[in-house]
Design a protein that fits this description.
Blueprint lengths: L26 H8 L1 H6 L5 H20 L8 H13 L18 H23 L7 H24 L8 H5 L2 H4 L2 H7 L4 E5 L4 E5 L6 H21 L3 H20 L3 H21 L2 H20 L2 H10 L4 H17 L9 E2 L22 E2 L4 H27 L6 H16 L8 H17 L5 E2 L2 E2 L6
Antiparallel strand pairs: 1-2, 3-4, 5-6
Length: 464
């Protein structure tokens, strides 16, 4: 790997990097993000990240051969975590205490490792491309478009909760694989998850994502970039459009019944307001105030307020989450260094160890340990040591860039910080973690100095 402090030789005047074409190399990212609703409808879903990681990896390999590949500061922590995930595969066949025998498997473990590698390619791709090849505004625009698509998908889930269809990819899968519940969630497009939360069926929007929890996590992250791109960097029409989109998002956000998302949005508003007050950003302060007013009015004058109250009175999954979280900590206590390589199913339920699935209640007992949040999943799969490595790189990056004052920098900081909130409640793999990795790459790009061209030599970093 090339040292980022060493000059690169052989550059042509006006080129982005020596030997590297200045054409729009960032197209795979644009197609991935802006076209995600299409990939979802085709049944690709999160596998679209794998598909577009191929040209991204090819571009990184080409740069490595020609000019050397840059790595962000502190990347060794994330690289060590990747090594940890591979080492953990050796423990997959072992039986963890308090779990269903043979409930772990290599399929889920390998899938998780591949996802982390794909996320790494995504971060390095965004970070290595120059501003000329992949403008930051283009990245923000793609995330903003994806935010609008997510809000639209929320309305689809609210008003057409039974909408679902067989995706083209499903026709290509073997019958046994296509009918697997986990695979179905990934490849079968549906507008909502219909669940019994209040004693009757409630539609919780999820399009264009796999689960309603993922939908809530994503809308929380993407609204940050809608504010950055349309409120802070857009014109008057864009600002009003962002405010309108934020107001429209209230309905599906409430109907998602995701309490962690409600709290996460509140935390984001507090963060934005504090930063706006510190730097005197009138537009951002006005946007925060408008969001508070719109949200309060929506809850006060509509049935949405009753939905919020009903959700507070019906914790629904709290006991099950607490039981699986405790089981995750207990499992990690027996293998604190490497974990168990993958998740497991817990014996029994939160009420009794004797309770298990039956024909009348197939969902009773034997819940998956680690499915209640990224933290718990990482603890089970990779141990406490692996979890510290997983969190070290984003935490160190936030600390390193804590003084970042630009709108993009502030948006990226908030995106990464939200990982440390949602990790207690939702699994970040795959899409939420992808947005987080993009934010980490943008922070890295912001710190790289503008190049100085002397005698045809382009110093590392590319034009900014």
């Amino acid at each position: 790997m090339a040292d980022a402090s060493a000059p690169l030789r052989g550059a042509r005047a006006g080129s982005v990097l020596p030997g590297v074409s200045a054409v729009a190399s960032g197209r795979p990212l644009v197609w991935l993000l802006a076209g995600y609703p299409l990939w979802w409808a085709l049944g690709l879903g999160q596998f679209a990240y794998w598909l577009f990681a191929v040209p991204m990896a090819a571009e990184l390999l080409r740069r490595h051969r020609q000019v050397g590949l840059r790595l962000p500061p502190g990347f060794w922590m994330w690289g060590l975590f990747l090594v940890w995930t591979v080492l953990g595969l050796a423990l997959v066949p072992l039986e963890a205490p308090g779990t269903v025998p043979d409930s772990g498997g290599y399929a889920g473990a390998v899938l998780r490792v591949v996802n982390y590698l794909v996320l790494t390619v995504l971060m390095l791709y965004v970070g290595n491309l120059s501003e000329r090849e992949l403008p930051t505004r283009t990245v923000v625009w793609c995330l903003s478009v994806l935010c609008l698509a997510t809000i639209a998908g929320g309305y689809l889930g609210v008003f057409a909760p039974r909408l679902e269809f067989t995706a083209p990819l499903e026709h290509l899968l073997p019958g046994a694989l296509a009918s697997d519940p986990f695979v179905q969630a990934l490849v079968h497009p549906a507008s909502a998850q219909v669940m019994d939360v209040f004693g009757y069926e409630s539609a919780r929007p999820k399009a264009p994502w796999e689960y309603t929890n993922t939908w809530g996590y994503m809308v929380s992250l993407l609204l940050v970039w809608l504010v950055v791109g349309w409120v802070l960097q857009g014109g008057r029409a864009a600002r009003w459009g962002a405010l309108a989109a934020g107001a429209l998002a209230v309905l599906p956000v409430v109907h998602s019944l995701n309490r962690a998302v409600w709290a996460g949005l509140a935390l984001s508003l507090v963060y934005a307001l504090v930063q706006a007050l510190r730097r005197g950003r009138a537009a951002l302060m006005a946007a925060c105030a408008a969001a508070v007013v719109v949200g309060a009015l929506a809850l006060a004058v509509s049935p949405l307020g009753e939905t919020v109250r009903a959700r507070a009175e019906n914790p629904h999954s709290d006991d099950g989450r607490a039981a699986t979280n405790y089981a995750a900590v207990d499992a990690a206590a027996h293998s604190p260094v490497l974990g168990w390589g993958t998740t497991r199913q817990a014996l029994g339920s939160s009420d009794s160890i004797a309770i298990g699935p039956t024909a009348e209640c197939p969902g009773c007992g034997q819940h998956v340990i680690g499915n209640a949040g990224q933290l718990w999943m990482t603890v089970v799969a990779h141990g406490w040591a692996g979890t510290l490595l997983f969190l070290a790189f984003p935490a160190w990056t936030v600390w390193r860039h804590r003084a970042q004052a630009s709108p993009v920098g502030q948006g990226a900081l908030l995106t990464v910080l939200l990982l440390f909130w949602y990790m207690f409640f939702y699994v970040a793999l795959m899409s939420p973690m992808a947005v987080t990795m993009i934010a980490l790459a943008l922070l890295w790009r912001l710190e790289r100095p503008a190049p100085a061209l002397r005698g045809g030599v382009c110093l590392p970093g590319g034009p900014r």
